Every structure is written in structure tokens, then in C-alpha cells.
Amino acid sequence: MAVLRKLAETMDHPDFPVIDGKFDNVTQSVYLRYCEQLGLTPAGRKALGEKKEQGGGKLAQLRSVQGGNTAKTGTTRRRKAAGGA
């Protein structure tokens, strides 16, 4: 949020987009991109909602493919076969 405030201050400068003789053509696009990634725009909110509906990330996808089995079950079986606890 601090970055968004700093970018907003830059865009509020009276001489924007030419500040101190330098043409700034990046600040607006970066500001909008950050807002979208944080879900502060309609498109960003929609994308954020889709991500939450997926229910996990790659780990959840791997577990669903393996049927919920994890590596721990394999090591437990090996310990029992070796006579361990």
C-alpha cells in the first residue's frame, strides 16, 4: 500500500508527467497493475475470486491426482516393514 501511495503522490504532482525535466511514462501503468494485482479494480477482483475458487495451488492439484496419498504413508510403511514404530 505504501508503494501505491508513493505512486499516487507522483501522479498528483502538478507537472506530471514531466517532473524535473524527465518524462514519466511508467508510473500510471505500474499503479494500475498493482491495483489490479491487489484486487482493487473490477478485473482484479474477478481474477482474485477465480484464484480463491480453485481451492489450493499446485500442491492441492498434486494431492488430488494422487488421491490424497502423501509421502508420509510410504515412509510409515517402510518403517513398519523394517520392524520400526
Explain what you see.
By secondary structure, this protein is mainly alpha-helical. The chain folds into two domains: 1-53, no CATH class; 55-85, no CATH class. The chain has helices at residues 2-12, 27-37, 42-53, 58-66, 71-81; strands spanning 18-19, 22-23. Strand 1 (18-19) and strand 2 (22-23) form a beta hairpin. Helix 1 packs antiparallel against helix 2. The longest helix is centred in the middle third of the chain and has 12 residues, at 42-53.
- Low-pLDDT stretches are none
Supply the number of structural domains.
2
Strand order in space, largest sheet: 1-2
If you average the pLDDT, what whole number results? 78
The amount of beta strand, in percent, is: under 5%
Give a quick account of the main beta sheet: strands, pairing sense, barrel closure: 2 strands, antiparallel
User: Helix and strand succession?
Assistant: HEEHHHH
Q: What is the overall number of helices? A: 5
Structural class: mainly alpha
End-to-end CA span: 51 Å
Radius of gyration: 25 Å
Helix content: 55-70%
Number of strands: 2
| General shape | elongated
